[in-house]
Amino acid sequence: MLSDDQLDQLDVLLLSHTDEDGMLLSEFDGFCAGLIVCPEMVLPREWLPCVWGNSPEHLETLEGVQATMDLIMRHYNDVALSLTPPALEYGPLYDEDRRTGEILWGSWCCGFERAMRLRPNTWERIVESDDEEAASSVNMMLALCNIAEGQSDLPKASIRTLKDQAPDLIPNLVLAINDWTKSGRPDAPFPAWSAANQTHEPFKGKKVGRNATCPCGSGRKYKQCCGAN
What we know:
By secondary structure, this protein is mainly α. The protein has helices at residues 4-17, 25-37, 44-52, 62-82, 106-118, 120-127, 132-148, 156-181; strands at residues 95-96, 103-104.
């Protein structure tokens, strides 16, 4: 598991190597959770461009890309392992207002919602399932995402209550959805192997070869893309 210093390093690298459409640490942590509890596996070649942002030009050096890629995949693996039965030790990474100590959970929710957008039909199947807890957990997560983005139409009193409860509520929602994904029920819409619920680390970061496909998602060889510098 990444140490606090390594998480700080990842935060700095994400700030340095992503554009305005990319993610910082708390949003990326929520994004990882959304990918892991999704019943359908989303491969790195699809979700990595969401982390980098729209433009690969900001990924300037091999060393910078490799250091960032390694920590990104290690953190993804950490989240995956924390949600792998039987030992569940999941806890989200929130931002914190250093002046007031307030927990800022909104960016985490935005990251989770971005992961949901990659497989909207899959999440709809959870909502339409017979599992009331899983369905209500998805709906509650969406309600928190709407609050975080200032788009909620709930009464102001309900919004205030959910804002106060969100830091403690979010881990329970993640675990409830994770239970549905990993239940192994015969009527599950996807086989167990199709989700990111393996007992081993799903993916490991590895050195980017110059003739390999660029990890930024452009589809070009690394030497012709981010490795051109």
